[in-house]
Amino acid sequence: MNPTRRQWLQAAAAVPLLSACGAVPNLSANSAARVLSAAPARLPVAGQGGLDVWAYDASVPGPVLRFKRGEWLDLELHNRLPDATTIHWHGIRLPNAMDGVPHLTQAPIEPDERFRYRFRLPDAGTFWYHPHLGTAEQVERGLAAALVVEEDRPYPVDQDIVWLLDDWRLDGQGRIAEDFYRFHDVAHAGRLGQKITVNGLEQPQQVLQAGQRIRLRLINASNARIYQLALDGLPGWLIARDGVPAESAIRWEGPMLLGPGMRADMVIDATTPGVFELKDEQSRANVVLARLEVQGRAEASPRPAPVPPPIEGLPPPVLAGAFEQTVVIGGGARSRDGWPQQTEAERAARRQRREAGSREADPVWTLNGVAHTDHHHHHAPLFSVERGRTVRLTFDNRTAWWHPMHLHGHHFQVLSRNGQPLPDKPWRDTVLAAPGDRLEVAFVADNPGRWLIHCHVLEHHAGGMGTVFEVRG
Hints:
The protein is mainly beta. 8% of the residues lie in helices and 40% in strands.
């Protein structure tokens, strides 16, 4: 740790305790160029009376930004962190210069500098924002928040609730463990924490009145944890994935997988008084994440299934004559294809950067045989297409690990998994590839610029699992 960094962290420890993180404020969409601060803070997070975090506007998670579809987001980030940063607006189809990828779409925002993000919000849905520089560390320290774009007409529910899921790795003194980019995490499943929170709190409880229908927006902001979410005792339906409505409501029966970066909009009916638990069934422990407490009398008759809002503005892919590209996912522990090869010069340069205080992961993952461990701008695009052409991608996961593959600047339809067509062809911006999976997706490349494709297990991306494609015109 260099002296400047140590001084910043010591200063953060002196910041007094702020208000609890469970009540996440909303920001007005009416004021232009609202200033958002990213700074060290000391907050009651993850069951700790005070945890040294990095926070947007002294809140973990950061403030919920709420807008209507078609409105302008106009926000100036003031970087008060010890490190450079950016904001990536995850899932938004926005101009390339606003995408927040350092060196590729903008220069890093250095400490005490400011950068103005301004763009129109073309799609309604549940999105989120987070850094895209030192992402595995900066998100783990607390920099994550929801961005909600509402439909032209409010969806008919009694409450609209955002639950941002995260996990935290703490050391023996109850501090955020400083072992970022640990080789074992990078080469295996990523960084997993022992504390899981919802809106920064352990097992919060939301009170509902019997008869209410709620919209529950679930966001997985964890570095690497894949949740298997279950809610027993109340009727629920999936109405949107990654911000895009489903064709029809899907009954919530059994555990629902939610990988890092992914979102799910659920409609839940409070039919029966009692306390109902949202659980993560990814282990035998069935960890309770949060609770819904329903008060009042039971409903006499069930409501009809909800109707998802319409899909608006997304151009459907045209598969005839589509540009086709296979993305082979390789590397990692227990790899069939071996580790990425490094020249002696590359190894020496990496040693020099580390001796100078650089924090980076070892290159252990590849896409099509190449490990992108810098900021991508030195690499030629994996493919380049004219604006308006349909792209058909095949993700071929040849590793022993799960990978949520995220596409910037576009949404895609998932066509098939392991040769089996998906009848509903769901729209997503992040698709979860299991070990050995072969997934086909398609999208219209209608957003000009150079865009990322990468794994949203943040340690995997840091360890090489990312690439760039180009849309010309």
